[in-house]
Amino acid sequence: MTYRATRPYLRGMRLPRRGTVSLTGLTLALASVATGCAEPVDGPSLVLSLASPDAATEPNGPAINQFVREVERRSGGTMRIEVAWDVTPEGVEDWDQVIAEGVARGDYDLGLVPSRAWDVLGVTSLQALNTPFLIDSDEAMRAVVASDLRPDLLAGLEVAGVTGIDLWPSEMRRFFGLGAPLLSPAEFRGVDIRSPTSRTVSGLLDALGANVVQTARGASGQRGLESSFAIAGVGAVATGNVVPFAKLETLVADDALRSRLQPGQWRVLVESAAATRREQLESFPTDEESARSFCRKGDEIVAATPGDVSAFEKVGQRVRSELERDPATARLIAAIEDVVATVPTATAITKCPDRGSEPAVAGDDVRALDGIYVARVHRRDLLEAGVTDRGQLRDNTGLFTWTLDAGSWQYQQAADHYRSTDEQYGQYAYEAGRLTLYWGSEEVITARLTIDRDGTIHFSDLHDNLPELQKATEGFFGQPWRRIADLPD
């Protein structure tokens, strides 16, 4: 077998393709044209601050980082965003409101604040988003974010002294028990449940009879938390089929910022935010992907009985009725309900998606993996693994179709941003649950495999014999390969 010497991770290091111009002045000029701004961005470089209550490693980190890159690209390098991460660390209460009020005071030019936080600060236009059990699936949340309701939802932010720029998707929220699951409304009565400050979120927990606290997770006497798969933490048991809320993020600006900027500069912010929203709708982890990651840490997902689900929803209906006392909120709730009705009813997550999968066992040989698989690698997957080279980020993302055949592998890549005619191929060995992938004449990648009952392959304990490619390997093979077909006859 003749191996291809080309490694996709190394594409960012190749010589420029034919027709590429590398003259700095012309590149910058073309970047300005490519922004799509109706007005030029002139003058000295502008640095704006953006505050986040989260760390860069948390779920909204990739969206913020993408926004930063979009602003720099669309402004031709004349605008830059400096991010203040984790502004309100553990132990600081009302952390979302700290960010919101800081932006309103002008301490920060921009901020990313969950929509749930604004009702405490007098904003009513966003509270419809936290109507209990209204946006109760990942598909519904994405449909609402993509809809034309965004301007109406953001319009009320001026009451809090900020300007709403955009609305981004985030995580689905659930109830997590500490030590034991929270499976019925009766289990909330009189116990401490940790939840961020929000009038609408607290309204449901209060109606369930819980004591809403912001003490450290797992503090003495704490029974559980209202959280998400991504941040609930190890040892929390999720009630998977009870989804009271979706978390959405508002990107806001100090009210005075727009008047301080040139029209073209403000347009860069708005267009960069919109581009980030569109990308996040495609790349933000789905609810099922988040569930898989949660379960791989050893955590558990359980289901409430249909009767208990109905009991939760009955309590939620009482809270909804209170919200609908405000006519404007009632209209937005109805509009959101219309959008949600356009998407299929999601299948409830009642257990860990991969639970019951068996790791590969000794005696398996290369023919055990024969088949055709697909894997989608997002830019965020490589970024989270520590890859920073722009060429690698561009060239090694997309949909990859892999064929494994008796020790030989090959794949083809499809991506909107990159058209590849290359077909990568090589050989592999598989024994005792461990894959050895031979890439080119020098590189060897090894990994432990877990194989689902439907044939999906998951990689762990990845090692690349070339240390400089270890991060790229972790990002590239960090996504499951979904089996789509047997080999053709």
Which CATH class of the largest domain applies here?
Alpha Beta
Number of strands: 19
Number of spatially distinct domains: 2
The CATH superfamily name of the largest domain is Bacterial extracellular solute-binding protein, family 7
Major beta sheet, specifics? 10 strands, mixed
Tell me the overall shape: globular
First and last CA, distance: 22 Å
Number of helices: 14
Average pLDDT, rounded to a whole number, is: 85
Into which percent range does the helicity of residues fall? 25-40%
- CATH topology of the largest domain, anyone? D-Maltodextrin-Binding Protein, domain 2
Which segments are poorly predicted (pLDDT under 50) over 5 or more consecutive residues? 1-40, 356-363
Strand content: 15-25%
User: Mind telling me which CATH architecture of the largest domain this is?
Assistant: 3-Layer(aba) Sandwich
C-alpha Rg (nearest Å): 24 Å
Structural class: alpha+beta
Description:
This is TRAP transporter substrate-binding protein DctP. Pfam families: DctP. The radius of gyration is 24 Å and the shape is globular. The chain is of the alpha+beta class and 489 residues long. It has two domains: 311 residues, D-Maltodextrin-Binding Protein, domain 2 (3-Layer(aba) Sandwich); 128 residues. The chain is 30% helix and 25% strand. The two termini are 22 Å apart. The strands form two sheets. Strands 1, 2, 3, 4, 5, 6, 7, 8, 9 and 10 form a ten-stranded mixed β-sheet that branches. Strands 11, 12, 13, 14, 15, 16, 17, 18 and 19 form a nine-stranded antiparallel β-sheet that branches. The N terminus is likely disordered.
